[in-house]
Structures are given as C-alpha cells and as structure tokens.
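Field reference: sequence -> structure
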Amino acid sequence: MKKKLIYLVVAVVLLGLVTVLDRSLSHKVAQTTEQADATMEITKLVAEFGNHLKNVPTTANPALIPPLVDQEYRPYITDALYDRWMNDPMSVPGRATSSPWPDRMEVKDIKPAGDHYEVVADVVEVTSVEAANGGAAVRSTVYLTVVQVDGVWKIAEYQTSME
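Structure field:
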C-alpha cells in the first residue's frame, strides 16, 4: 500500500513538473516568435526609411526641409521626432552632397530594451560607380530607438553618434 502511495505521489509531482515546464517553454516560444517578428518588421522599417534619405537635401534652404520631411519621413517616425526635426531642420538626416549620396540603410544589430528596441545601422552612401556596380563609397553608423505606436513600429530617435 505504501509503495502505491509513493508511486502515486511521484506521478503527481512529475505531472505537475511537466505541466509547469510545458507552460514555461510555450511562453518562451511565444516570446521568441514575437521578438523575431518585431526584428523583421524593424529591419523593414529601417530599410524603407533609409531608401528615402537621398530625397532630403540637408544643404537646401531650411524652409524647404519641413515639407520634404512630411513627404519622405513622416510614415516612419514618431510625432515627437517629427516635432523635433520641424523645430530644428538642420538636424534632419538626408543628402548632404551631390556625390556620394545616401542610398540605403543596413541594420547591423537590433536589441530589445524594455518597451523599445535599440538599432545600430549603417547609412550606405554611393557614387555613380557603386550605384552601377554595387558596394559602398562610405558607411556611417547611426543609432536608432524604435517604438511601437498604435501597433506600428516607428523611429523615435536617430543619432549619428552614441551620446
């Protein structure tokens, strides 16, 4: 009788342990899937934003920059970053020279940081040679903070150096 009771207790404990482990594993799989989905979406966001850098000439008359930010960057940035750039048009990233020009952004690293993600990316600049043959004339590292706003990933911070 004692053996049966011991076997029953061991079976119940093992069943409980398996249930706890299964729930924990399911939670970790869900977290990993969420993070992988976020990483893909953020990579796409940064690439799309980077494709617009060439369309905003930063050496233009500062009065011309706000409408270009509206047209080229608005879908990719938070309201706070938009307001900051509207108040300081000279801080807006974009095309500083006729050649090389920013062609794209390539993500180097994405790390979750609480309710946002920290992104390190390269702005890849090209000349007509690289545009035709591939490659990069210049690479500059930028640091982005990306947040979710109403279910959509947006760039909240754009820095050219770690401050």
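Note: The chain is about 45% helix and 25% strand.
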